[in-house]
């Protein structure tokens, strides 16, 4: 008889959990997608103004590549401290702060006067944005059960693909504005940066830091969410021990593997992102708006790919196999992009986008399932910050290659090689912390 009460209660908890998950997704996912859209636009919109920076400020290919990449240096330095502070102050306060400061830094990009100020503002923008992405990923670990987090992450990451789709036409259109002593590219930075500041005000009134703060969840739904998260934590404690050590996990070879995989993914994403508008300009005589429209095509394709592979991974439950598969698709596409005309390169990058954007969505459930919840915020931030250094290496290397050789073919081949390396590393990554069991079998 002692087992009858929990068994009888289990369907009620399952119903309450399902109801809570639906509410959480409808409440926070649209907001996080909107945040990611404006975040991604502010991060990569310099790709559309490269020729204007050169013509108006004398910023050449190497300087542009270095400045584009410096964002990720300060981002990496401040990523872990920012995510730890979010745990202390709560998501509501900290995510609002992040959006206000990055919006102001994005506006400041309109007033750079040369290479030095360009470098400084990119560093400031990276420091301001640090903690946003891993903060949202950590937020999901506190609000959604394991089986729902992968789908939520895929929807959230679609924000970057949506941003890539809309940023071209929006940025291109804004660059047609002239007046008040500002060039079009300056108006683009001002308007897109202020959009982040305005959205920050909405975050303050809409977002809750913890399930217990959510008045739009009833008590049964709150209990169901917290109970499910607690059950998952007990499973991690059984593997890691009652007192997990953050330093021990940081020395864990699995964490290094996670960093290598995400570094390779970021390397490919930002290599394509920052140089795609330049490839498009070589295809013909296009104005800024037309370049923006062409720039949207690979990312539009990638949105469908992200959802498609997320559904396959959820159905067949071999996460690492799917990550390896899409990384090989990215490798093939990036290699082909360096072998033909600008039009052929553009088509190849469209194909590669299927792989590298799907990989970015499929990757995160792997470290999430491995890490102890009490230290996952800091370690997820570490993985993201080290991985995002690919965003420094790719544009800086591409800029030097183009300035010295007049071509980025070698860079595209290098991205293909790194994707193959990451695909191999995926099979050494564990989905759970248990020892002595094959990673794929644990699915």
Automatic annotation (TrEMBL):
Residues 28-436 form the Major facilitator superfamily (MFS) profile domain. Pfam families: MFS_1. Its main location: membrane. It is a multi-pass membrane protein. InterPro entries: MFS, MFS_dom, MFS_trans_sf. Keywords: Membrane, Transmembrane, Transmembrane helix, Transport. It comes from the Bacteria. The keyword Transmembrane applies. It is found in: Membrane. The chain crosses the membrane at residues 24-41, 61-81, 93-112, 118-140, 152-175, 187-207, 255-276, 296-314, 321-337, 343-366, 378-398, 410-429. PANTHER family: PERMEASE-RELATED (PTHR43791), TRANSPORTER, PUTATIVE (AFU_ORTHOLOGUE AFUA_6G08340)-RELATED (PTHR43791:SF36). This is Quinolone resistance transporter. It comes from Paraburkholderia metrosideri.
